[in-house]
Every structure is written in structure tokens, then in C-alpha cells.
Amino acid sequence: MEEFIREFMDYLSVERGLSKNTLESYGRDLAKYTVYLKKDGITDLNKVKRPEIQNFLMSLKDSKLNASSIARNLVAIKVFHRYLAGQRLLKEDVTSVIETPKLWKTLPDVLDEKEVEAILVSPNSRLKQGIRDKAMLELMYATGMRVSELVNLNMTDLHMDMGFVKCLGKGQKERIIPVGSKAKEAIQKYLEKARPRFLKNKGSDALFLTRLGKPMSRQTFWMVIKHYVRDARIKKRVTPHTLRHSFATHLLQNGADLRIVQELLGHVNISTTQIYTHINKERLKQIHQKFHPRP
After folding, report:
1. pLDDT tens sequence across 127-172
2. 3-state SS string over the chain?
3. pTM above 0.85, yes or no
4. Which residues are catalytic?
5. Domains of the chain and CATH, by start
């Protein structure tokens, strides 16, 4: 099974050109799947039938995995089996008769404007780390970039004189995003006062660097956000994606057109962006129930 997975991953990387993050996601999901099958006494994928896959999905549900993650696991399994059947490595594609479960809509957690402000003012501007963290947080909230897009920015992606940043999103699609004055100010301060100290006379094209002078990773930036969420005494569950959700929600609350928000976020399908309209409706309902005399 491991050999089949390696061959499949090579196919996804070379022929499909999937991103590193997507490849890692497929790899993790298929590793869980094969571990489950082996525990069930199955070492030959030709012996896998529909019940085994359904039982695997139920085991994910029992482990409290959310619906979208379970659906993603099923997609990985279906693409894997379809590929193997197409290469005649399997006799049949048993997943062709398995439907993707309908997902229930889960609204992402968002911060209100005061909570975002509390996080943005938390970094200590007297320290080089604080200057860097301030620039990263301001830029993420100003643009709604994904974490992977933020940490992968290079110096050449900055066009501060023209007021925009260029980033590479999912599917290697490039987009241009305007940057507001607060973020520009924070970035300029970082470039002048902190980044040269992180470089330590080394060369690097990466915009945001760690104390070792290496490019910032997604995991490290997540720890950075957690630190400032604690400092701001915010009790909500906040992830790096929360700033992206908050960016989109605040734009719509202040009258932005949905199509513009879609473009800024880099969503291929507007239905993905429409979840933020549901957030606004939920907020309106909460306000109505709180303040109307007969809720």
C-alpha cells in the first residue's frame, strides 16, 4: 500500500502540479486510511470494499473530526482509488458508488473590530520581534491573506510605493491585494529597523524572518498569534485563519461588494465567499434578539 501511495503522490506532484500543502494533506489522509485498513487485517487494496471505507469514515466521526475534514479524507480516498483503477493496479474502483456526505455549514469564528485592534496593538514595538510581529499581523488583517501566502512572501512581492502586495495563492494563482496605510507603516518600520537585524549579514529573499534569519513558518506564526491572543485576553478560539475570516466579515459589514471580497480572498467560486454573508445574518439575528422588546 505504501508503494501505491508513493506512486500516487508522484502523480499528484508531477502531473497534477498540486501545491505542497495539498500534497501533505493527501499524504496525511491516506496514511490514516492505510493504518486503519491494516488494523482491520487488510493489506491488499483489492480486498477493500464499500463497508471498509464507510467504517473508516465512521471511525473519523467517532474521533470527533468535523464534517469538512471527513469529506476531505473521502476525497483523498476516492482520487487515490480512481487513479489506481485507471492504472490497472486495482481491479475496480469501489469508491465510485460512495457519495460524499452532505456537509453542514459551520460558520468560522470571527473577531469584532475591537478584538482585532487589541491583538494588533499587543506587540512590543521596542523589540525587533515585536516590530516583525506587528507588521505580519497588520498585513494579514489588511489583506486577508492565507497564512501560507503570508509566510511565503518575498521582498520582490512588496510594492509599497504603489500600495499593493503580490501573493501566490492556491493553484499557483497570483493576485494583487491593496495594502492600507497602517499596514504600510508597520511594514516600513520592520524593513528599516528589524529585518536587517534578523538577517545578521546573511542573504535571504524571504520577507519575514525568524530570529535565526530563516523564513518564518506557518507553525511559528501560529505560536506568535496565540501569544498575542493571550496578551489581548481574548477567550475565543483564534487561529491564523481567524484574521482572514475577520477581514472578510468586516469588509462586508461595512458595505463591500461580495465579488470584490471574493477577488481579494482569492476564492475561485463565489459560493465559498458567501459563508461570510451567513455570518452577517447570524450577527443581525443576535442583535435583533438582544435589543428588540419582543424577540
Report:
1. 999 999 999 999 999 999 999 999 999 999 999 999 999 998 877 8
2. CHHHHHHHHHHHHHCCCCCHHHHHHHHHHHHHHHHHHHHCCCCCHHHCCHHHHHHHHHHHHHCCCCHHHHHHHHHHHHHHHHHHHHCCCCCCCHHHHCCCCCCCCCCCCCCCHHHHHHHHCCCCCCCHHHHHHHHHHHHHHHHCCCHHHHHCCEHHHEECCCCEEEEECHHHCEEEEECCHHHHHHHHHHHHHHHHHHHCCCCCCECCECCCCCECCHHHHHHHHHHHHHHCCCCCCCCHHHHHHHHHHHHHHCCCCHHHHHHHHCCCCHHHHCHHHHHHHHHHHHHHHHHCCCC
3. no
4. 146, 170, 241, 244, 267, 276
5. 2-97 (1.10.150.130), 113-290 (1.10.443.10)
